[in-house]
């Protein structure tokens, strides 16, 4: 039986550390509030110029590729998860293909926000299992710092997010005790607007049921991105934090239990749970709900904040680098976020 294994893993976080105290200089917030509600002490911000979602991805990918013992020219497919792409289009996958001088391989971008990496891994897993590709580069990368409202108005969102990238190389394995056992993907679009960035977009206020403009209004060009949107700060992410929190603490344990049940395993079998780093309180809640010990869960949101699609591969890479994951160990990846979408993956390292 062919399964996908993680043959190489890499991460990259920008050098620039931004502490809660740094945020207090630009908005009305406090270190106490941020730590108490989220666990975050500091996060990394990419350079304003010269460092993008793609350049960070390339840094992480280069490490993953080297650790897999191959070269960029051996990669035969790219799956790139991000909500903060360099361009509205094209996606970042092709930019990685160009930057790493890869062959004219396929490049797919995934837009699933916090669960993006687990979704991306699941997609790549199918291509490996069917035998279509042998070396897939799966990336999660985000440059949030460029698109947040750093005034007090945006504090409920902006204090949470950080920048960074993580990448893995997936390869086939026939070893019984290795590889991805299963992936589980879910969505519930009912709450799509609860955690969303509406603009720029083609909704023309449709979902927000505001005034609907017509072609006769004479504003053909400014529906997508207008001065008014910027003046009214409508170009930033929106989040109803408490609603997201409530749903997350239900769906996280649910999708982990689903993965365990599908493989006739229990929470006690998990060597390491890598939860999406949304909020330390959410991770602690999930840990408690599943009855996991501290050494069975890896959290690093304290240092990096929430890096959305990058958070799972960064945490996975860090846990592995710290020797917390060894060959044959049972690793569970789980994520929940905007969409809502949520997902899990169970694998033997
Ligand atoms: O990965 C993406 C998925 N996102 C998540 O999983 C986020 C899930 N939600 C959360 O993590 C939490 O809801 C937050 C950390 C975002 C917020 O924590 P909360 O305990 O739910 O706070 P809240 O939104 O209910 O706000 C409580 C108070 C409000 O003030 P009033 O109305 O009680 O006077 C906010 O205005 O805290 C205020 N507040 C802040 N105060 C200081 C909101 N943000 C801040 C801030 N600093 N940064």
Structure summarized in a few sentences:
This protein has 349 residues and is α/β, with parallel strands linked by helices.
Rg, nearest Å: 20 Å
Pick out the low-confidence regions: none
CATH H level, superfamily name of the largest domain: Thiolase/Chalcone synthase
- Mean pLDDT comes to 95
According to CATH, the fold-level topology of the largest domain is Peroxisomal Thiolase, Chain A, domain 1
Beta-strand content bin: 15-25%
Oligomer: single chain
User: What is the correct CATH architecture of the largest domain?
Assistant: 3-Layer(aba) Sandwich
SSE run: EEHHEHEHEHEHEEEHEHEHHHEE
Note the gap between the termini: 16 Å
Task: Describe this protein's structure.
The protein is an alpha/beta fold and 349 residues long. The chain folds into three domains: 3-173, Peroxisomal Thiolase, Chain A, domain 1; 179-192 and 239-348, 3-Layer(aba) Sandwich (Peroxisomal Thiolase, Chain A, domain 1), CATH 3.40.47; 198-235, no CATH class. It is 31% helix and 22% strand. The protein has eleven helices and 13 strands. The protein has helices at 20-24, 31-38, 53-67, 92-99, 116-129, 155-158, 227-231, 241-262, 280-290, 301-304, 311-321; strands at 3-12, 17-19, 42-44, 77-81, 106-110, 136-142, 164-173, 179-187, 195-196, 238-239, 272-275, 330-337, 341-348. A five-stranded mixed beta sheet has the order 1-7-6-4-5, sandwiched between helices. The chain has a four-stranded mixed beta sheet with strand order 8-13-12-11, sandwiched between helices. It has a two-stranded antiparallel sheet with strand order 2-3. The two termini are 16 Å apart. 46% of the residues are buried. Bound molecules: oxa(dethia)-CoA (UT7). Residues 29, 33-34, 37-38, 114, 155-156, 159, 195, 241-242, 244-245, 248, 278-279, 282, 306, 337 line the site of oxa(dethia)-CoA.
